[in-house]
Design brief:
43% helix; oxidoreductase; heme binding; oxidoreductase activity, acting on paired donors, with incorporation or reduction of molecular oxygen; extended
């Protein structure tokens, strides 16, 4: 014998539960330390799920113009952009990049760089840095 439920699941229950779950998830996500630190970097306002995708436009020229000229001038050479749930910190001034690139202590590369290994091989771009424990002082 099968036990059947007397509760009728209507679309109203489904959408209500989905809205409650998404609201709870979004609230806890925006309160995380990582998100607060990234949002402390100046940058354009972003939408909750889309980030800055609508601001960037759908053409390459619009994307390039916003990232290299408009936002670089507006936010002073370093700014953050949200691409859906993935934050990107753009450094547009060579003076700001020099201490980072000339440092002997560089962490691991992002996992997106693994996609370039097939094309670039063991180039300087993919070279892993020296950890603090193995740093050689001359």
């Amino acid at each position: 014998m099968f036990i059947t439920s007397t509760i009728e699941w209507s679309p109203l229950y489904f959408w209500s539960a989905l809205i409650i779950l998404l609201t709870t998830w979004y609230w806890t996500w925006t309160q995380s330390r990582f998100v607060r630190l990234i949002n402390a970097i100046p940058g354009p306002k972003h939408l909750p799920l889309l980030g800055n995708l609508l601001d960037l436009g759908f053409s390459y020229d619009g994307l390039f113009r916003k990232l290299t000229f408009d936002w670089n001038k507006k936010y002073g050479g370093i700014f953050r952009v949200w691409l859906t749930f993935h934050p990107v910190v753009v450094v547009g001034l060579p003076e700001m990049l020099e201490p980072i690139l000339s440092s002997r202590i560089i962490g691991d590369k992002p996992k997106e760089f693994k996609l370039l290994k097939e094309y670039l091989g063991d180039s300087l771009v993919l070279l892993k840095g020296i950890s603090k424990n193995k740093c050689i002082h001359l």
